[in-house]
């Protein structure tokens, strides 16, 4: 099977499996796991933040960080196409008593300042209004097809948020895809956020885990909330050891995924019945539509699977292909050929 379902399907590398076996372990709830401590200090340094904390998932990372920033009854401003708003089970409302304010998402993943502005009440003293306490950005943006938020835009949002006295949380599940695509140190991106969530388990290929990074004060609160949510883990060095390999040696190779994604996009764009603009591809995600009238998006997905290729649906009938370490250039050619053959074979 050629599996374009997600970059989360990546299995740990041999180096990661060896690191797991050799990891020095301790009880991390008591702060005694050296491997976790090493990962957290490396992550903080790489991301240009004061402190960092290992999390079991990106969802818990975002939730803990949002709850640490937002008092009960306040609002968190999130993109209406964001992972936080769509795929995280409404955790901030359920666990934190926080109101999500969905902001229209532009095709390139930006939330316009003029739209963010509307979330602020005319009179902050008026007790009837819930007050915004946090603004969240997603970088790269999954449902916008792996788009990288431009630096001048981040600067504009940070200035807006500072003027409005609220922090910015970045859902940077794929932040290293952004830094590699821009050919910049990731700190040139994270400097526009007060806190960030980074997934180790996506293109970086670690089996489990995410990082929250931010100020010392913020991380103190995040750790308490992580414990409350059940995310205090004992010999978590088992997770941190492959995470260290991910941060040390898996970042640069993301460029290869980006090249492969472009290759896939150019190949698929040539096929009649597929609507795809290859110039839209910036990182490791390719979005397209099936316009061939013999298929709906769901019969396309089913049939593609019979031809050995797994894609997924990404809203509004769009089909998503995610490229990752376990997809080679040769696999891309095979996938394009399989889709070609499938469209040729299908009865009218
Ligand atoms: C995957 C993802 C998450 C959540 O991470 P999990 O580890 O799956 O909980 C959050 N935000 C974005 C943008 C993601 O792609």
UniProtKB/TrEMBL annotation:
Lyase as UniProt keyword: yes
Keyword Lyase: yes
InterPro entries, per database record: ArAA_b-elim_lyase/Thr_aldolase, Low_specificity_L-TA-like, PyrdxlP-dep_Trfase, PyrdxlP-dep_Trfase_major, PyrdxlP-dep_Trfase_small
A Pfam cross-reference name: Beta_elim_lyase
Keywords, alphabetical: Lyase, Pyridoxal phosphate
Cofactor needs: pyridoxal 5'-phosphate
Record EC number: 4.1.2.48
Domain Aromatic amino acid beta-eliminating lyase/threonine aldolase span(s) in chain numbering: 3-289
MF terms in GO: lyase activity
Family: Belongs to the threonine aldolase family.
Protein name: Low-specificity L-threonine aldolase
Species of provenance: Brevibacillus ruminantium
């Amino acid at each position: 099977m050629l599996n374009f379902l997600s970059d989360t399907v990546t299995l740990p590398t041999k180096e990661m499996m060896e690191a797991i076996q050799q990891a020095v372990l301790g009880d991390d709830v008591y702060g005694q796991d050296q491997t976790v401590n090493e990962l957290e200090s490396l992550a903080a340094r790489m991301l240009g933040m004061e402190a960092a904390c290992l999390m079991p998932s990106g969802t818990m990372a975002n939730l803990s960080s949002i709850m640490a920033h937002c008092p009960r009854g306040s609002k968190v401003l999130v993109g209406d196409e964001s992972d936080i708003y769509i795929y995280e089970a409404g955790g901030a409302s359920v666990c934190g008593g926080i109101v999500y304010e969905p902001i229209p998402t532009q095709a390139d993943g930006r939330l316009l300042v003029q739209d963010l502005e509307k979330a602020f009440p005319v009179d902050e003293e008026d007790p009837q209004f819930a007050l915004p306490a946090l603004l969240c950005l997603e970088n790269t943006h999954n449902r916008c097809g792996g788009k990288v938020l431009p630096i001048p835009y981040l600067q504009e949002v940070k200035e807006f948020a500072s003027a409005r006295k609220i922090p910015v949380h970045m859902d940077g599940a794929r932040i290293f895809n952004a830094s590699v695509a821009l050919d910049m140190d990731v700190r040139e991106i994270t400097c526009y956020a007060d806190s960030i969530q980074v997934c180790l388990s996506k293109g970086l290929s670690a089996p489990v885990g995410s990082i929250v990074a931010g100020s010392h004060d913020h991380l103190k609160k995040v750790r308490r909330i992580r414990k409350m949510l059940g995310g205090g883990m004992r010999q978590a060095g088992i997770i941190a050891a492959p995470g260290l390999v991910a941060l040390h040696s898996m970042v640069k190779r993301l460029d290869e995924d980006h090249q492969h994604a472009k290759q896939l996009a150019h190949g698929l764009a040539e096929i009649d019945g597929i609507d795809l603009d290859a110039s839209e591809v910036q990182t490791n995600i390719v979005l397209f539509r099936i316009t061939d009238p013999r298929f709906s998006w769901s019969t396309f997905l089913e049939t593609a699977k019979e031809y050995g290729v797994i894609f997924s649906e990404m809203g509004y009938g769009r089909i998503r292909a995610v490229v990752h370490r376990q997809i080679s250039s040769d696999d891309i050619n095979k996938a394009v050929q399989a889709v070609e053959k499938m469209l040729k074979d299908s009865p009218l």
